[in-house]
């Protein structure tokens, strides 16, 4: 938490200077609000994170074109906080808004699009909408496969999420296949005690037990 406190202090000092010297709707103030919100998010203080993310969004909404990438960043930030707060329908709306802007402003295979599809798919998993989750995760995986090296951890994340969808759909053979692909990449790219390796290993154990039933 010490590093977060330092980051928070640094962003707050930057904000104080900007607040005294800039107009109230200046884009740099929005950036400060967003940065402070991200630190609170990482600290697990989600109501504060949401408050600062919303302040950033209010400035950007007033001052930027409706398809500006900074607005997509704000929607993304708010969506991630809503997800942590368990407000999945609000999170979904925010992530879909981010994706809508990204489609207008980014190349069709840009990694940010993959991230957004992944986030939307994860929300559909939590909401129990398996076919929509699968569709989103397939789009995320397709982009990851086209744009990332074959041993990139983000590709492993995408395989893992595909496994989760198939696990929830009780297609144990496909779930196992995707989990094992994720594990192979994680084991090459991450230290052996990393939580991702532990999580996917547990998922493989669970699927194998269910597979035998």
From TrEMBL:
Pfam entry (one): TPR_12
SMART domains linked to this entry: TPR
Keyword terms of this UniProt record: Repeat, TPR repeat
Mapped TPR repeat ranges: 30-63, 72-105, 114-147, 156-189
TM stretches of this protein: none
InterPro entries associated with the record: TPR-like_helical_dom_sf, TPR_rpt
PANTHER family: NEPHROCYSTIN-3, TETRATRICOPEPTIDE REPEAT PROTEIN (AFU_ORTHOLOGUE AFUA_6G03870)
Protein name in UniProt: Uncharacterized protein
Organism: Adineta steineri
Taxonomy of the source species: Eukaryota, Metazoa, Spiralia, Gnathifera, Rotifera
